[in-house]
Amino acid sequence: xxxxxxxxxxxxxxxxxxxxxxxxxxxxxxxxxxxxxxxxxxxxxxxxxxxxxxxxxxxxxxxxxxxxxxxxxxxxxxxxxxxxxxxxxxxxxxxxxxxxxxxxxxxxxxxxxxxxxxxxxxxxxxxxxxxxxxxxxxxxxxxxxxxxxxxxxxxxxxxxxxxxxxxxxxxxxxxxxxxxxxxxxxxxxxxxxxxxxxxxxxxxxxxxxxxxxxxxxxxxxxxxxxxxxxxxxxxxxxxxxxxxxxxxxxxxxxxxxxxxxxxxxxxxxxxxxxxxxxxxxxxxxxxxxxxxxxxxxxxxxxxxxxxxxxxxxxxxxxxxxxxxxxxxxxxxxxxxxxxxxxxxxxxxxxxxxxxxxxxxxxxxxxxxxxxxxxxxxxxxxxxxxxxxxxxxxxxxxxxxxxxxxxxxxxxxxxxxxxxxxxxxxxxxxxxxxxxxxxxxxxxxxxxxxxxxxxxxxxxxxxxxxxxxxxxxxxxxxxxxxxxxxxxxxxxxxxxxxxxxxxxxxxxxxxxxxxxxxxxxxxxxxxxxxxxxxxxxxxxxxxxxxxxxxxxxxxxx
Length: 556
Known about the structure:
It contains 21 helices and 14 strands. It is α/β, with parallel strands linked by helices and 556 residues long. A hairpin with a 5-residue loop joins β13 (318-319) and β14 (325-326).
């Protein structure tokens, strides 16, 4: 059936269908029949037809209507249509046929020779089109194969050096922009020259291929492994800090040490030396520097005896009893950078504490404020953000940024007179006089910008009133265009507002779940709503039956 050309004949009279089928029947031809316009429209969506023979006079839907509907569909608009009719031969009917997209117009009874001649033209055109499509698919497949060959190492099948550089630049830029960590391994097989000299290059190639598979089995799909050159390999680990990289590096070293390479009577163990560097710990200014730092650590591993894992600037790091890496007392460039980061972090926390004291100052005039800062409510919001960030696998520094944004949001809104997100009467004039809701995110943004320490929180506060369906403000962002921190803050702040024990805002657990489900896909990100429902069930945040939460998840 796949290699046959398809023809569709449409006529409400079955005797006409069988007569046409008998007339056209030929090897290499598949004939489909339809007795109504609706049946014909269904078939043209299922099959690739070379031509459609369409009767004009049919009950419910005539041939002209069928043709018009076919021309409106991208899938069927180019299928040739030949009208066949016994109605008047007046020009107006013929013109109508051509206007609806017909390529020809035949009158019954149809001359068999004329019909076959016309059909053969379209069958030939269809054959050429299918051959062209097949050639196009073959070319596309070959292009994909060539592309894959261009980025892969011919011996090991891993990414090659050139393509790794492209990925490195992209992943480094993402880590820098999103303030996430990224680690890099440089891996070298120890005394590999002796393997080639002793057992020959064929066995050396065998070792390289199998060592590549050994490494591949121990990494994630998001990690990037490449052959850097000779017996050197490079591994990039997005969203992985120095501690995680060091643990993985030691696992690789042990696997390499234990593995026995056996082929054609040759049997040999080959150890590996590994150097590691990370963005957060070593602050490389450029992507290439991250690899250079890992290479320097590899050089040290080889210089100190091979078959070991070393970390760049390891002289500035000591292992504690817990296995974590801490800076020593003496000042090195690494230690200085780390201390500066810690000082900036502490300064930011001190600023948050100062802001909290200001809004709680009893001497400040409170009569014009609709809200007072409530630490318990804010702590609960931050706690839920932390839980969701952990379930999403987000880096801890990024989650901490989200938490600070939530606290800034609560502190600032005390002065801006912000009402709760589920206010009883959002049309209240007093509320509108105090704060224009569409200006509110921009006001938070401007307040955050007063403190350079909160540069990461600006975006979260600016877009926390955007909605998933694009109906929010200030810019009407939609879906994943809204930063993930803003989507998290919107959902968690609304949930805490609904569930926190406050006067005049009693919401039952059932109503809270209903509101989350109803706003999923509109105000809230459905993925995050599903995650929050899981956390509500896991942490028992609401006294509500498990079956109700499961039913809610099916509606999201």
